[in-house]
Amino acid sequence: MKHILIVDDENAILEVFRSLFSDDDYRLTLVESGQEAIRVLKEDVVDLVITDKNLPDVSGLEVLKVAKQVRPVIEVIVITGYASLDTALAAIKEGVYDYITKPFQLEEIKLTVANATEKRRLILQNQQLMKSLEEAYTQLKELLGRREHYSQKLDDVERELYRREREIQDGIALLRRAREHAHQSYDNVVPLPKKNSEEK
Fold it and tell me: Among 9, 44, 104, 186, which residue is least crowded by beta carbons within 10 Å?
């Protein structure tokens, strides 16, 4: 369930938001000051912030700034009754998702919230995919390293087997030559004549 933090110093506006999202699958936290909003941001996990720009204590832009510092993936919608180019640019610089002026259409707010939460979901999904890819790449590098290690070992074993095979072949050839030499020596032996019994 997505957690939406709504910040406005007018209780009537908060109740409008409560009614607007009552049928949706959201958990709502409604606060009337920027300090309360900052406390919630630091103590709880928030997915989306809707804040009025003009609050009695700190600016809605400050709430936006803190939200992005606490969790960069939080999307923030700033609402104001006094739009100005400088304020809009400042909000954009701090990473605002949308900047809406009063009076606004309720369906516009609902659509903006739906788009903002979907954007956040896609960002988190992308981060998870990137993490999975990095882990898979690390595992692949380890496997390739092991393969190279075992390949080197296999090459060493093959060279040793080849060396021993050559030694055996040389030994066999040497034995053959020795046997042939022995046969030749035997063939060259002149048999001694047998003594006749009459000569004795």
Answer: 186
DSSP-derived letter for residue 21 is: T
Answer yes or no: is 56 within a domain. Answer: yes
Phi, psi for residue 8 in degrees, rounded to 5? -160, 140
What's the CATH number where 70 sits? 3.40.50.2300
Q: How many domains does the chain have?
A: 1
The pTM assigned to this predicted structure is: 0.64
**CA 150 to CA 146: how far, in whole Å?**
6
Per residue in 66-117, pLDDT tens?
999 998 889 999 998 776 778 778 888 888 898 888 888 888 888 999 888 8
Phi, psi of 83 (to 5 degrees): -75, 140
**Residue 105 counted as domain residue:** yes
